[in-house]
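3.2 Worked example (two chains)
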Amino acid sequence: MLSELRIRNFALIDNLSVPLGPGLNVLTGETGAGKSIVVGALSLLLGERATTDVVRAGSDRASIEGVFEVDGRADLVEWMELRGIEAADGTLILKREVALEGRNRAWINGSPTTASLLGELGGLLVSLHGQHEHQTLLRREEQRAILDAFGGHEELRRQVTAKHGQVTSLRTEIARLEQRRRDAMQRADLLRFQVDEIEAAAVDPEEEGRLEADVQRLSHAEELMSLAASLSEVLATGEGSASNQLTSVRRPLEQLVRIDASQAELQELYDSAYYALEELGSRLDDYLQVVEHDPVRLEELRRRQDLLYRLRTKYGPELTDVVRTLEEAGGELSLLDGAAWEVGELTRRRDESQRQLEELAVELTRQRRNAAGSLEGEVGAVLPELGMDGGRFEVVLLPSREMSAAGAEEIEFRVSLNRGFEPKPLATVASGGELSRVMLALKTILARLDAVPTVIFDEVDAGVGGRVALQVGDKMRQVAESRQVLAITHLPQIASRAHRHLLVTKDDAGGRTTTSVVPLNEIARVDEVARMLGGDPESEASQRHARELLDKGRAGEPLKPPAQPAL
């Protein structure tokens, strides 16, 4: 139950606390006083999208806080614990803050949270029905949702939706695979040519560098041999070679070191130079043995370079791209061999999922048909209580041309508002006021099944008046026997049925407009109901009529009105 709503710096509201109690709470006031502002603040607290224009002029942030009594709600405790939010015993406080600058914030029992989580939790606490919501009743998807909620087969419908998604996904995959297979078949000759050509070339992405080096060496083989021979003669084989000259240095150097041992390092340097020169000469001799002039081999290498160049031109620009082309073409060709099996396997899975979908849909249809009969009976019993004595309500299951994610049928609500007329779709026969009453009838029935402890009706009584308004008030009071109800209304007949009556007023204070909400005592209620009746609220006739309405409201009272402070 929502026990208190606190609002600060929201639209016209400066600082406001709205006390609520069990049973039927009504919120009334002059047009433009700010009733819709209070509902807007509550909607924001329950997760509605926030905009900065709700912040009161002159303030930098607006805040809305709701205090809920949740004794015995083990489901809420579990919900919070799963999300790491501390659950205070018996009390739950939701808070939302909208800032002109910076990010908006939200809290659950003092723990920071997100607006989406706040809205998710709010949906377990409050069911809010707006003044234009009855228009949604004209949509078949809304009618289907109402029937499924009434029948309690929402989980079965979710299973149908999930299985339908699985079938759709498999169909899409099969179509994609078959299209790829058709594309591969059309390109099969080209793909086979590409595979044969690249495989025959045995392409190695690292090959070009080696080829370039080999071609360079064979192209200059004679020059390389000449250079190597000249170097060998200068270094080792010629009469005046460096090797001979270095040998003549050995004896004088050894003698110098014997005389002056401190120059022993010179001997080490000499040895290093001698052996390095000897190694250089040896390698030149070896090189002369391997380098050769081979025009045939050179021509082979150049033909190989030309082949790789052509492949790069066709499939490149790099040899790695050529190899990738081979892999992709081979993959497409393998698809021709494996696709038939894969399509067959996917088709088997699709057919099995389709069979399961049809079984689920048949069961959903059966449950919907049973629920439709029960809903017809219950709504039909409520309509006379809402001033529609000749009303007749039907729920029709219209088979769909093909299975959808919602099942094998569309749901259509039909109504006859007068005896002797066949029921027709709501959109064709019902006025705004009649739609409001049909919606109220449905909400009255669903309220018994819904675990949400607080129901809010925001001017859903639009378009009704007189005796019908009394019946609507009685029906709201009936809903309030099992849960808390907050009704924003402009009808005195409904206001007179309340257990708690709150008045919304708009005043000027210090040059600024401010909205206030105050609970009314019995005397003040008479004045407010007299005002709502029209005419002169201070006249004896208006006062007497107001007292009569309030007396009738108390006559069949199932709940004792909570104590209310004086105005």
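3.2.1 Second chain
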Amino acid sequence: MIVALYRFLFTRLLFLLFLFSLCRLLFYLFYSPEFESCTTSQIAYAFLLGLRFDLSILLGANVVFFLPLAIGRFFAIPKWVFTINKLLFVLVNSILVSLNLLDLEYFAFTGKRTGIEILGIKDDIGNQANQLFLHYWHIALLGFVLFLWILLRTLRLTYKPVVSKRPVLYFAIGYALFIGLAVLGIRSGFQLKPLRPNIAFSIQPSKLGNVVLNTPFNIFMTIGIEPIEPVHYFKNESEVSDILSEWNRQGKSTFPTHTTKQNVVIIILESFASEYTGIANAGKGYTPFLDSLASTNLYFQNHFANGRVSMEAVPSILASIPGLMREPYITSLYQTNALQGLGTQLLKSGYHTSFFHAAKNGSMGFDAFTKNADFTHYYGLNEYKGSQEDFDGNWGIYDEPYLQYFKEHLNTFPQPFASCVFTISSHQPYSLPEKYAGKFPEGDLDIHKTIGYVDYSLRKFFEAAKKETWYTNTLFVITADHTQMHSNPKYKNIRGDYNVPLIFFHPSEKLTADTSLVASQIDIMPSILDYLQIINPEPALIGQSVFGKQPSHDYAVNFSDNNYRVFLKDYYIEGTLETEFLIKKYTHEIIRPANEKERKLIQAIIQYYNNGMIENTYYTWGKTKGSI
């Protein structure tokens, strides 16, 4: 009967492993263009390594349910216990498989396997349940089919009274052995620390780590765990400060003397990659208005997002906090840290501050964060009083009416004001007002027609804003939260994954800066303060004013797949906490190991960010005693 017991447990696990491998295959097929440069042997190894992660989460979730099923082969347990156990077995494993299907679509938006941070947008998912089901019905159908398969396979198990006459000790030894093997399987070996998600990215190339991982494992391993660890590359804070100060060395900015305080308007465009613009692609794009604005003002062609999701963009832009950890700052354990946002400094200088988001109030946690960043007035869908026709039926208000609504509110604010608006129309499901059906080029991707609509909405906004008295005294900053899907081969690389527009525009002044230099979202806050000639007494140590950037002192930072990256002009530095830092081309080829100067830069950034977050000294670095 011990043999029968193990055969019983083995067949159950084998079936579940098959389903997880099937999900992995589907994930690979959905995103095969992402891995087209990988060899067959590399892909095969990724599938093989993935079994470790599958076995770990399946044993962890099922070992309790195996106990009554197994004991039923030796002892007469009540039939109702047997039945309830089977139903729980079906429920738990159906949830695991369904979670594994989640990234068949969601990976396209984040570029990484989903973790517990998904709970940060649980309200948005609930609010959008109808349209999400409508557009991703095939995923729901696949999940239902797999649920039926698990159900039917489990219902086949019949209640059997005791058939074994072996002594209890015989069973106890066998089951103790099984428990020991199960614990070993959950830990996935005898190593000091249990299996963790970052081990998946030890594979080469590291991007295959997303094939290795399964979503349930990733979610479970991010529950209640601090996503960042303190590091000690340098002995004390001053060494870190010296390195970052040297890299952040600025030239002197020169601006005209303003007799009137200047307003600030920041426009964040949803999923608006540089790939979609004409200015970045020899005129071949979907943004004629934005192209015209960029061609006569400051347009930064080497500008990068500091993250891959919206919740990473807003802290980067408004507080110089890049997304250098697995979980967005907004939902992380550090969200209550002392925050020195853009609004903090502007309020001290007498500015009226506000943040507008065309989606439902509370979406993405922007309401709470922007108020912490001292944007004291928040306007979401609840405050919008326009026509019902302005609602896109999914997320919120179409861009054209919402930007007009935004403009009307700016008319009512006391000057000087600083206001930020976050648009939504270029968000999935890429819907348009009925009156614009067929007006904008379809392009190669679903998003392209909505990019044209957003561009048109911007044109209408600026045409209306020109008529207002505040317009000539306003600095406009236009950027995007993150990139989206690629169709242009030029952007199918790590550079294209983060390249978003950045435009500085003032109707009455000719702004000057070296727009060929590398810039990123964390540069926006210091750039605005520099332009307004407002001194920030507690600035972040990363992020520079674009008006004072110097060649060979320009960089951008980001993090994904457990890899830290520093983007430089012609190449980037990449590595993990456990591996050496390498210099790579933007087409991913390794050039060489990082030299001492390059290595110290990325190590200083990591130590500053990680330890600054953990110790809540991100804006007061070097002002506390002691080493880190």
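3.3 Remarks
The first strand starts at residue 263 and ends at 269.
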